[in-house]
Amino acid sequence: MRLAFRRDLVCQQMVELVTDYLEGGLRSSARRRFEKHLAGCPHCTEYLAQMRETIRLAGRVTPEDLTPQMRDDLTDLYRRWRSEG
Amino acid sequence: MEPDAELLRRLRAGDEQAFVALVERYNGSMVRLAASFVPSRAVAEEVVQDTWLAVLRGLPAFQGRSSLQTWMFTILVNRARTTGTREQRSIPVADAGPVVDAARFGPDGAWSAPPEHWIEEAEDRIEAEKLAGLLRGAMDGLPGRQREVVMLRDVEGMSSAEVCQVLAISEANQRVLLHRGRGKLRQALESELGVGGSR
């Protein structure tokens, strides 16, 4: 994302830059402006912490367990494939 | 947990248990991912079964240039897209709206309704099971492409390059979709857990 020079970032811009920031996608000048705003803004600091927490919690969502039916179906599929030759 | 590379080696040696272990590890994620492309859960399960067969048949040709998971998920998405009707409709890359409601900022662009605290609440007040359910629900509510990117990046833990390969999208698209999707998950957590409680 390109940013106008010199003007300080406002909170509304900050929230749109959070993912670029976390992904290491900001150029060094933009990154410095982002961090400068962060240092003086508890709300944006909170927002960033919440995005990090959101990502961490999403990482703990586990896929559903395999049903016995599906396990049997897929074991059959494997055995049919083995006998294909 | 046994690494994928080891399961792959055993699978190639004809070890049925290695196949079952791989199925246990990935089948659930694959069904959820496929479900994002096709009209029903039953169709998603069929697509996943077809994918497992394609994986077994493709094993001799798999050269390991990508991870086993990336390779399998790429096969899955290709099949799901062919099967699904979703791709026939034209899908905008991402909804255009801001990631945080504009009404929460003043005319100067500073927060007027700042983020409500909930981080500590998330784990102190709510059971892990409920929290996971809340996040799953929020993910299900995302537009398809955002859901796919968030699932692969944040639930499966794939890199952005892997996600781009699996979904055949550009790095820039991937990031926009991730941004929108994660933003909505955060909002869902705030709405549910913030000091204002459920709204």
Provide tags for this entry:
heterodimer; A: 85 residues; mainly alpha; 0% strand; B: 199 residues
Compute the gyration radius of chain B: what is it? 19 Å
**What is Rg of chain A?**
23 Å
Order of helices and strands of chain B: HHHHHHHHH
Shape of chain B: elongated
* Uncertain stretches of 5 or more adjacent residues of chain A: none
Distance between the termini of chain A: 54 Å
What is the helix tally of chain A? 4
Mean pLDDT of chain B: 90
Task: For the record, give the distance between the C-alpha atoms at the N and C termini of chain B, rounded to a whole number.
Answer: 41 Å
**Approximately what portion of the residues of chain A adopt beta-strand conformation?**
under 5%
Rounded mean pLDDT of chain A is: 91
Total number of beta strands of chain A: 0
Tell me how many strands of chain B there are: 0
- What is the percent of helical residues of chain A? 55-70%
